[in-house]
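A quick aside before the break. I want you to see a complete sequence-to-structure record at least once, exactly as it would be stored in a machine-readable document. Don't worry about memorizing anything.
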Amino acid sequence: AEETIRNAPGEVGVIVALEPSLRPEHTVRLLVDGKAAAEPASSTAFTLVNVDRGAHTLVAEVLDASGQVVTRTAPQTFYMHRPSRLH
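That is the input. The structure line, written in tokens, reads:
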């Protein structure tokens, strides 16, 4: 949270730590700035690609088998720093 990520292609690795661990019938959906970053998955590791410069908010949601939200994380903000082509 509140970290600056320095990565020219705009890639960010995200690992969602859950306690207790994910149940077999549950999936995780990662939201970036309120929008789904990918389809819900049984994995808790995600790679975001081509993230724009600036501040972004991440939220992870655990979904049950019917797609209903079981729980969600508190929003976490990070800052993407990508070098300019001008420099």
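Two observations worth writing down. Strands lie at 3-6, 12-15, 27-32, 35-36, 45-48, 54-63, 69-72, 76-81. The mean pLDDT is 94. We'll return to this after the break.
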